[in-house]
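Recap from last week: sequence in, structure out.
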Amino acid sequence: MTKGDAREWARRYVGRHPFLFYNFYRLRPSYRDLLVDRKTQIVIEGFPRSGNTFAVFAFEQAQRESVRVAHHLHMPAQVIRAAQWGIPTLLLARKPTDAALSWVIREPGVPIRQALKHYVSFYEKAAEYRDALVVGFFEEVIRDYGAVLERVNAKFGTGFSSFVHSEDNVKCVFDRIEEVHRADRGGRLDEKVIAHPSAVKAGLKDALK
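Predicted structure tokens:
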């Protein structure tokens, strides 16, 4: 086992055990607002590059008032803690090859083998809590997200506003994604990294396949 393999194994192990995960991640200020806590009203989590940013931004855009969302940590510990505390959870899922290739394009130092191992580890653990969550498949999230949110409301008895999947609303979400992306990178736009479709990513993905 290489040092990289050992680090990835340790990361996956921590991510499957909430006690370790939350004690470690709470030490990092940038993660605190993303963690599940007693004030969390909904968890939106999935493997990286599975529509996480679109799902969170579109959800927030649709709500009439602020909702506390736990998101973007890409670890099953978030799903486990939410299930233990009875917090509504939307688990995002994308086809493994598409998700893994997209992640490797974003993080070139991650071997595809490791990406797929992390994918399997994530969903094997999350699946143990399938009765406490709603699954939103990538294709449905990006085409009819309102239907996914309606399933969340139906399962958990919540009253979250649905997302109307119109061209204008989707554009607003993509505009916000680009705004945040540029703000994090000094105004630059990186087509390999930004969390919406791009011809650059499509070409790289075809080459990696």
